[in-house]
Write a structure and sequence with these properties.
Elements lengths: L1 H15 L20 E3 L6 E5 L2 E8 L2 E8 L5 E9 L3 E10 L13 E8 L8 E4 L1
Parallel strand pairs: 1-7, 6-8
Antiparallel strand pairs: 2-6, 3-4, 4-7, 5-6
Protein name: Large secreted protein
Organism: Rhodococcus chondri
Keywords: Signal
Length: about 130
């Protein structure tokens, strides 16, 4: 009997799937950090690399802001790609050197940054995840 119950539970788990286990966990929603530096998307950054999104906040029905840490805005820039589905908004955040700062010395201090992003549709109750 135990074997039959175990087999039934296993089949049920496989049939139901993982319920989005392939999807990254939702990012925490939080107010923008006090004193955060506002960044503007710069698709021309040099040597872009992934940046970690620490949290996000609602700016409007179809706008969110992502929060992160990077270098000073005089030398470092960010860019993002947003992919929307019915259930999820996925944000890929990248940071890199500004083209105009390639040949100059930059101080290496961490800055808390905020980048506002437009959505194609109102956020509603969709989750926000990092790519």
């Amino acid at each position: 009997m135990r074997l039959l119950v175990l087999l039934a539970c296993s089949l049920l788990a496989v049939a139901c799937g993982t319920g989005g286990a392939d999807r990254p966990p939702a990012l925490p929603e939080a107010p923008a950090p006090a004193g955060a530096t506002e960044f503007v998307a710069r698709p021309d950054i040099v040597e872009p690399r992934p940046l970690t999104i620490t949290s996000w906040s609602r700016v409007g029905d179809d706008r969110i802001a992502v929060h992160f840490e990077t270098g000073t805005p005089e030398c470092f820039g960010v860019d993002a790609t947003v992919v929307e589905t019915e259930d999820v908004v996925t944000v890929e955040l990248r940071g890199g050197t500004l083209p105009e700062a390639q040949d100059r010395m930059c101080i290496m201090i961490a800055v808390t940054g905020v980048l506002e992003l437009s959505l194609q549709s109102p956020l509603g109750d969709r989750s926000v995840v990092a790519a």
